[in-house]
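Minutes, project huddle
Topic: does the predicted pose make sense with FE3-S4 cluster bound?
PN asked that the exact inputs be recorded in the minutes so nobody has to dig through chat later. Recorded below.
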Amino acid sequence: TYVVTDNCIMCKYTDCVEVCPVDCFYEGENTLVIHPDECIDCGVCEPECPADAIRPDTEPDMESWVEFNRKYSELWPVITRKKDPMPGYQDMDGVAGKLEKYFS
Ligand code: SF4
Ligand code: F3S
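Predicted holo structure (tokens), as shared on screen:
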């Protein structure tokens, strides 16, 4: 599966949602997530993200991100249409430690 990781938080470009063939992106207030059981591993969303936040779970240390994506995809509504990124997204792109800052 692919999952959304740290750098989506407080940016939410949403380019990713338009290309997903199975509509498995879900939207929270500050970030998006992918439902790991619905993702068919096609990979087309990965290059669409300007923040490089979408990663395959085959990379090292991704287990906690898979769990994060699974947990919130079951709580948040589906998103299939691109919308404006979050206010101030330019300043937040690349900031370290967003998960700790905004989800603790
Ligand atoms: Fe959707 Fe494919 Fe991205 Fe999975 S890898 S979230 S199926 S676009
Ligand atoms: Fe987030 Fe990137 Fe999609 S910033 S909303 S994963 S395009």
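Observations noted during the meeting:
- The pocket of iron/sulfur cluster (ligand 1) is lined by residues 2, 19-20, 22, 24, 34, 39-45 (CB under 6 Å).
- Residues 11 and 91 are 9 Å apart (CA to CA).
No decisions taken; revisit at the next huddle.
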